[in-house]
């Protein structure tokens, strides 16, 4: 182990310094430990928000299918097929979003983002390269 840092940015800065010193960074790992899950609530879920989110994901899926159709059967009306696939996908996605929200309502009436955050970050280096890494980090910055 080369060192322990409180934030990922600090650990990343150390690895950047090693990389600038021509250290073989393929032999370096940043390991997060003391993990915890953080759920940030971003808002209240409503039928409108469920419909919009469903329509957006459905439109992306429709675009994907429409482009596949376009690639494997090129024709003069290909743009119309792609557009129709996006609209159909958005419609089904909206319907699925509303039904899904209606079934899960009262169990989860909010939207959120999940994150896994580490309490500390350790930089691990191949034991045969530890001394070289310590020497590089002991040099003043810019040398």
Automatic annotation (TrEMBL):
<dbReference type="InterPro" id="IPR025889">
    <property type="entry name" value="GSP17M-like_dom"/>
</dbReference>
<keyword id="KW-0472">Membrane</keyword>
<dbReference type="Pfam" id="PF11181">
    <property type="entry name" value="YflT"/>
</dbReference>
<feature type="domain" description="General stress protein 17M-like">
    <location>
        <begin position="2"/>
        <end position="89"/>
    </location>
</feature>
<feature type="transmembrane region" description="Helical">
    <location>
        <begin position="50"/>
        <end position="72"/>
    </location>
</feature>
<protein>
    <submittedName>
        <fullName>Membrane protein</fullName>
    </submittedName>
</protein>
<keyword id="KW-1133">Transmembrane helix</keyword>
<keyword id="KW-0812">Transmembrane</keyword>
<feature type="transmembrane region" description="Helical">
    <location>
        <begin position="78"/>
        <end position="103"/>
    </location>
</feature>
């Amino acid at each position: 182990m080369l060192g322990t840092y409180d934030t990922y940015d600090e650990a990343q800065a150390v690895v950047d310094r090693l990389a600038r010193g021509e250290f073989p960074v393929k032999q370096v790992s940043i390991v997060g430990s003391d993990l915890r899950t953080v759920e940030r609530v971003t808002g209240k879920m409503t039928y409108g928000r469920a419909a919009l989110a469903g329509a957006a994901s459905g439109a992306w899926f429709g675009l994907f299918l429409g482009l596949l159709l376009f690639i494997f059967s090129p024709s003069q009306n290909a743009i119309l097929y792609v557009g129709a696939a996006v609209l159909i996908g958005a419609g089904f996605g909206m319907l699925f979003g509303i039904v899904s929200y209606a079934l899960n309502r009262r169990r989860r009436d909010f939207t959120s983002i999940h994150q896994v955050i580490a309490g500390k970050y350790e930089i691990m280096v191949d034991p045969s390269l530890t001394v070289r890494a310590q020497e590089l980090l002991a040099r003043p910055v810019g040398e």
